[in-house]
Amino acid sequence: MPQVTRVVLAEDEVLLREGLVGLLERFGFEVLAAVGSAPELLEATRLHRPDLVVTDIRMPPGRRDDGLRAAVALRSEQPELAVVVLSQHVQAGYAAALLDSGDGRRVGYLLKDRVAEVVEFVEHLRIVAGGGTVVDPDVVRRLLHRPHDPLAALSPREREVLALIAEGRSNAAIAAALHVTEAAVGKHVGNILTKLGLLPSDDTNRRVLAVLTYLRGGPAADPGGSTWTGPAAGRR
């Protein structure tokens, strides 16, 4: 029998919180606690030590990025903790901040609208709980059109492959989406990593570093040497 994923949920809107609890339980997750503020999230996660935290970004008491800050703090305390943050608006900086936490794995950044796409939403939660990384496709699409692209060295196909990596897709899934062979995808991935200067290493996940480069809009860097001071204040 597959292991049940244990979850702590943080959402300040009561109706949405209760709806998420029902959805998660319907799909076999065990909800250990459902709370409405960042301090409660910290307390519940430290008490229950769940497999997965699902949290809104904008939470009491500050109603700015309190939920995200709590999630990053918990990741520093519990490196194996999987975290998915939910946002009302596209903010690439939030996704980058979360990916900067820990080793960049077991994290997800999704827009709240994705909750309505129930099966896909649940699949994304399972990917993150299983050790993967998922970035909302709308964030990826927005980054594709930014000016002064730091990824100009990549070919159009390589940029397309990197966008799909950022969405948390495996090489096999990318091959299916692009109607090419998995070997072709592997070659594109290798070219991407080489062009971004991400040399083979046993200590870092180069796919995650490539996504970080994509989100930051700057040179690739080891996440262990990065510092996050928080995204710009404002609505998520």
UniProtKB/TrEMBL annotation:
Q: Please give the residue positions where the record annotates the modification 4-aspartylphosphate.
A: 56
Question: Keywords for this entry?
Answer: DNA-binding, Phosphoprotein, Transcription, Transcription regulation
Can you cite a GO biological process for this protein? phosphorelay signal transduction system
**A GO term, aspect molecular function:** DNA binding
All residue ranges annotated as the HTH luxR-type domain in the record? 147-217
Going by the entry's taxonomy, the superkingdom of the source organism is recorded as Bacteria
Q: Response regulatory domain spans which residues? A: 6-127
Q: Could you tell me which Pfam families the record lists for this protein?
A: GerE, Response_reg
Q: Which InterPro entries match?
A: CheY-like_superfamily, NreC/VraR/RcsB-like_REC, RNA_pol_sigma_r3/r4-like, Sig_transdc_resp-reg_receiver, Tscrpt_reg_LuxR_C, WalR-like
- The answer to whether the entry has keyword Chloroplast is no
Write down the SMART domains for this protein, in alphabetical order.
Answer: HTH_LUXR, REC
Q: Does the keyword DNA-binding apply?
A: yes
Q: Give the PROSITE patterns listed for this entry.
A: HTH_LUXR_2 (PS50043), RESPONSE_REGULATORY (PS50110)
Q: Which PANTHER family does this UniProt record tie to the protein?
A: TRANSCRIPTIONAL REGULATORY PROTEIN NARL-RELATED (PTHR43214:SF24), TWO-COMPONENT RESPONSE REGULATOR (PTHR43214)
Q: What name does this protein carry?
A: Two component transcriptional regulator, LuxR family
